[in-house]
Design brief:
Helices cover about 25% and strands about 35% of the residues. β14 and β15 form a beta hairpin. The radius of gyration is 22 Å and the shape is globular. Strands 1, 3, 4, 5, 13, 14 and 15 form a seven-stranded mixed beta sheet that branches. A seven-stranded antiparallel beta sheet has the order 2-18-17-10-9-8-11. The chain starts with a strand and ends with a strand. The protein is α+β, with helices and mostly antiparallel strands and about 400 residues long. α2 packs across α4. The protein has two domains: about 240 residues, Antithrombin, Chain I, domain 2 (2-Layer Sandwich), CATH 3.30.497.10; about 130 residues, Alpha-1-antitrypsin, domain 1, CATH 2.30.39.10. GO terms for molecular function: serine-type endopeptidase inhibitor activity. Belongs to the serpin family. Keywords: Protease inhibitor, Serine protease inhibitor, Signal. One of its GO terms (cellular component) is extracellular space. This is Antichymotrypsin-1-like isoform X1.
Amino acid sequence: MAKLFLLLGLAAVTMAVPYDSYFPPKYEKTPLGESIDRSTMKLLKAAYDVADDKNVVSSPLGLMMLLALFNSGAGPETKEEIIKFLGGTDFKQTSESYEELSNRFASLNPEALTVANKIYVSNQFKLQDSFTRAADKYRSEVDTLDFSKADAAAAIINKWADEKTHGNIKEPVDASMLSPDVAAALFNVIYFKGHWHVPFKAANTMDKDFHASDGNVVKKPTMHLERSLYYAESPELKARLVELPYKEQGFRMVVVLPDEVDGLPAVLEKAATSGLLSDVFKLRPAGAQVHLDLPKFDIKSKLDFNVILPKIGVSKLFNEAATGIVNAPVKVSKAFQEAFIKVDEEGAEAGAFTGAIAVPTSLIINPIPPIQFNVDRPFLYLIVYEDKILFAGTNTK
């Protein structure tokens, strides 16, 4: 049986610049957003559990989009597993949801968000007509590649990844991964670059204590901000949440801080069961200044989905023949993701803060004490577009 190769390369780059005003839009939960939420947290927990390095970043959404596309040509048992993982009711409904999402992302400013699918087909095979139509609906590029020339094929793939991630992921594919029996390779890239609405000032960044997951206390460059932010407390999660909006409309980062120093595994356990979106939608203006201390971080991850996917109930794609991809039965031989995220205060010194989130103050006689939000322990973070989680990760050291 011929091989099929899945690669997901993605990048999240966050920066900070001044802004004039911020009036947060009213987001609405959708069935697709809720299913993405639940699947994201299941996958993140599985990735965290198997990782030696508990600093994990991933875009489960990139995997979901690629699995939804793959499902157009998958075998019946694989289809059932993928639909269940994606939280859909049937193949048609699931496919239409992700096709629509692909087109929605394509309409956004590419300087903020790039979502790209690429299919390389071996010159020894031909895509099935039905899969070609599906690829078109997912706005996937299709090219032919000679996988028998592994070095040259890897160079072509890596050039595409390098261009789509703006030079941040240069060589995700090694020639040793490829072989003449590869019939096709499906790739996805999600690249995000955002600018803070609420600026951090580099002059306020100081080394502060961080209680790492291994029990050690380390010094980390920590940014500081004092503003009225969206904030929530979750007794169910035993955690608090704060939102940092981006200048790019619809995008925001949510930081989930466990109440206990060693509380991250328990938060992940609960989130994997019920998701986080309900807690995210409880975020409201704090009604007081939030004194936020947030470590700068730069995390890179390589996730082996051959190991992770079976742990969340998706395994048939590695052994069941998919007859609807090319003109021969294929199975997935390798699925992985390379990801990174950078969070810093770059650009925040360029100007002054001249706007704020409006909160009711007419009945306030005495100042409300500030809310201390000191991210000094392992935490969870999300990058969200409206109600769709683009990136999720953990920072533990």
